Amino acid sequence: MDGKELKVEAFSLGPLQTNAYLVSLPGENRGIVIDPGMNPQPLLKRVGDMEIEAILLTHAHFDHIGGVEQLRKLKGCPVYLHDAESDWLTNPKRNGSANWPELGGPIVTELAEYALDEGQRLKVLDDVVFRVFHTPGHSPGSVSFLYGKHLFSGDVLFKLSVGRTDLTGGSERELLESIHGKLFDLPDDTIVYPGHGPRTTIGFERENNPYV
Question: Rounded distance, CA 183 to CA 132, Å?
């Protein structure tokens, strides 16, 4: 269903100011978390006595997964990740944390409980259904989540920018195909919640983003 309004709270976490999102239904004490990043204390404090049903990962770079294990153990909730990056959670070289030791050292978590894939309809919070887009380019397993006019784009599309493509498995061609072939097909008023920086809209990026 796309009929229920969502409450979206953003937390800028860790040395790279990665956006983690707490998504809930207004008035209810339960939700899901998208990309619990490094130094997650502000997020963990906020979820306090909330029931967290799931952790959704747009991709498995270290700055997006730094808080996964703390949140998963605290709330007993499953993790969802695209299979193309299934082993990145256990491999600091693949998730990048081994490459920048000055940012906090190697990050290792348990494997994800569930896989994400293109076209999947992921039901959470009783009857909120996220549509899953496989949007590779920044990384091979990057996905974006859509509910109604809410799009969580990870590091694929930013306000007036796009994700870098010079990391493991990155591809500029795939990134532009993901943006033009999937995300830019969405309505202009679709709100984009990126992995870094402020929110934007599909219409604004289609008209103004210099990288696409």
Answer: 11
